[in-house]
Structure prediction request, 245 residues.
Amino acid sequence: MSGSLLEVNGISKRFGGLQAVKKLSFNVNEGEILGLLGPNGAGKTTAFNMIAGFHKPDEGTIKLGGHNIAGSKPWEVCRAGIGRTFQLSKPFGDLTVVENLMVGGFSRSSDRKRIRAAAEEIAAFLGLERKGDTEAHNLTAFDRRKLELGRALSTQPRLLLMDEVVAGATPNEASEMVELVKKVRARGVSVLIVEHVMKVIMALSDRVIVLDYGSLIADGKPKDVVTSPEVLKAYFGERYVQART
Ligand SMILES: Nc1ncnc2c1ncn2[C@@H]1O[C@H](COP(=O)(O)OP(=O)(O)OP(=O)(O)O)[C@@H](O)[C@H]1O
Prediction:
């Protein structure tokens, strides 16, 4: 692991009277899987949306490889090298797996042959090679989730933002997804992942950061962070922490 790929410095977002994210700073290192945790409403999705160009931060900078992308449009952020998966996967239902995986390729090239070869490689990477010609609406929910990951990979990101990749998955599927995300990192892609399933975060993350009421309250090794009194207080309340001590 070497150097910062993403540097988030002092970003904030307010919706009317609600301060959803407050002067948030953190970094993602080259080759790192960073877990982003926090109770419901803590500001995780808002932070993701600012990095991905869906929300313009009210203040602060977001640098990818040293270039400020804060306030850029989603397609500019994508071209800069950030891919994103969504909690609800929405592939083009009438397109096949390979066709879905070709769409992202056109953001970088217009060479159809090359784009198809890259899409087929990603289908194999996902274990969907035998379903390359299957229309997306005929896939199982879990295969659609894998396709969602593949669609993000097809834009050739340096950093992948992943949102709740195992929601609704069986334990076996969750384990398969953990292995896939590790393989994504082995391809040289860094990962920032929001996930409520603690087992997945613990299995995947090199480091974890925690948000509460829009502010960063912890940054460290997974096992240290999940036992920190401040984090337990955010999730379970003051009384729980007092009862344990
Ligand atoms: N577009 C919006 N307009 C108004 N308020 C919003 C908007 N988006 C988010 N919020 C509010 O901002 C706060 C942070 O929401 P956000 O979705 O970022 O939290 P989260 O940590 O992702 O939560 P969850 O784990 O439940 O998805 C919440 O109080 C939410 O209601």
Observations:
- The first strand starts at residue 2 and ends at 15.
- Residues 43 and 214 are 5 Å apart (CA to CA).
